[in-house]
Amino acid sequence: MKKILLLVLICMSIVGLTACSGNEEKGTEANGSKPIVMKLGSVNNDKHTLHDGYEKFKEIVEKETNGEIKVEIYMNGLLGNDQSMIEALQLGTIESVGVSTSMLANWAPSMLAFDLPFMIKDEATADKILDGPFGEKAAKQLEEEQLLLLGYMENGFRQLTNSKHEVKTLQDMEGFKIRTMQTPLNLATWKALGTNPTPMPYTELFTAMEQKVIDAQENPYGNMALDKFYEVQKYLTQTNHVYNPMGLVISKKFYDQLTPEQQKVIKEAGEEASIYQRELNREKSQEYLKTLEDKGMVITELSPEARKEFEEKSQSVNEEFKEKIGKEYYDEFVAEAGK
Questions:
Q1: What is the pTM of this model?
Q2: Which one, 113, 118, 149, 159, has the greatest CB density within 10 A?
């Protein structure tokens, strides 16, 4: 009986070892080493063109490193809000994040320039700034905070929505409780425009609108359509008040551990994926707007007179934040935006 029991235990051990060996093989590369896992977090919807951009980045990295680096994408705020994810990058507990330059400005003040109201008039101007000297210098500032920018994607031009009534003039939104991003410049802009701004993480925005904690918000068409803002907001005014870039950022601690060849792949993949996503987002932008209209939102275009009033009312913000941005950065940004 003891011999039979011993034989059974030996067989079970052999089966167990075989199973473990099989699992190990599945989790390793052909050369026997485990792939480096690179987690990429975002608060945006997984149907957004940003997700397509991150998928393009993943595709290039995994192909060009022969599977040495595996990119795992986490959308919809699964890894936290923007601020907590950036802090995790600095600690090295997350490898990469797609995040608004508005939030990155808390670590690189020069990026506040992107939030200056009514400064960037069109997409061609945006590209010239992002891919030019200013965009490069702003990215350099991040490195001092253990953050490395791989490329600029985009969320697009931001628009105003509210649940109260149509907004055609400044006076129409006086006293609105409006959600803004968690940066002083955004707060100052909407205060100058006569509203009561409330800073709030994007991950909390829909609930705040649904519960009437706020009356209004401002975001690009893609965010509003994909996250169904039309269910809680009725009126959309095409303000185009700010162009919103999105930085694809990697932890410098993580990057420094890679081989020179892997670093080169990561950098080139970030640049290529960023250009791809910007082009795709611009194609999709009008589709997002049509979705909002089809779902019952009232779309209002500002008259030239009203737009001029918006612009003039917000100009005080430029002077107020010139020093915080840094005069050298501010002057260069304004010059490039005005060319």
A1: 0.83
A2: 113
Q: In this structure, is residue 273 part of a structural domain? A: yes
Residues 270-286, mean pLDDT to the nearest whole number: 96
| 338 in a structural domain | no
Average pLDDT for the chain: 90
For the chain, helix, strand, coil in percent to 5 are 55, 20, 25
225 DSSP 8-state letter: H
CA dist., res. 59 & res. 328, Å (int): 38
Which of 231, 326, 222, 336 shows the shortest CA–CA distance to 283? 222
Q: Which residues of 281-295 are buried (b: 16+ CB within 10 A; e: fewer)?
A: beebbeebbebbeee
pLDDT digits (tens, 9 = 90+) for 261-273: 999 999 999 999 9
25 belongs to a structural domain: no
Contacts of 331 by beta carbon, 8 Å cutoff, 6+ apart: none
Whose structure tokens read 């194609």?
Answer: 283
pLDDT > 90 fraction of the chain, expressed in percent and rounded: 86
pLDDT of residue 8: 39
pLDDT tens per residue across span 61-81: 999 999 999 999 999 999 999
Q: Which domain holds residue 171?
A: 35-323
Instruction: Find the CATH number of the domain harbouring 300.
Output: 3.40.190.170
Residue 6 has pLDDT above 90, yes or no: no
Nearest to 150 by CA among 40, 326, 52, 269: 269
Number of domains the chain contains: 1
Sign of the four-CA dihedral 188, 190, 196, 198: negative
Is residue 24 domain-resident? no
